[in-house]
Amino acid sequence: MNTTLKKLIYTSLMLALVFVATVVIAIPMPLGYVNLGDGAIYIAAALLGPKFGFLAAALGSALGDYYLGYLIYMLPTFLVKGAMGYVSGLMFEKSKYVQGVIAGFIILVAGYYIAEVIIYSNFISPLSSIPFNGVQGAVGAVVGYLFATKFKKIFSGKINF
């Protein structure tokens, strides 16, 4: 199979997984929603590596925000979740799974804090979303770590392009 076609297919599948994990189990909260999309981001990063993990994470998550009506968060989500996929993918390539999910957790919490500082034009009110983002990040980190390490063993590394 053509390498470019394989990249497109696998990245599209992981993008769809991120999207579905984001919107199917979306528990609404006052400042957003809790979902399993972050867990899917770690799976995509482990299987696809940093570049394609970025694409699957950024596009799948931003489309999830669009579908659920959180349009104001689409661009921040694209950047934050894409960075999670990229950095985690770099760490996973070195078999540093714990460090990869911790880095993703930090990117999630810090990234959304910075985004909300810009959106709300102050440094104080976004502080209230840190615990919520922490819960979201922790759920995603645990789910992602468990599945990413198992899938990585099954596929003996990232999917070869």
From TrEMBL:
Keywords: Membrane, Transmembrane, Transmembrane helix. GO terms for cellular component: membrane. It comes from the Bacteria. The keyword Membrane applies. The chain crosses the membrane at residues 12-34, 41-64, 70-89, 101-124, 130-148. Pfam families: ECF-ribofla_trS. This is Uncharacterized membrane protein.
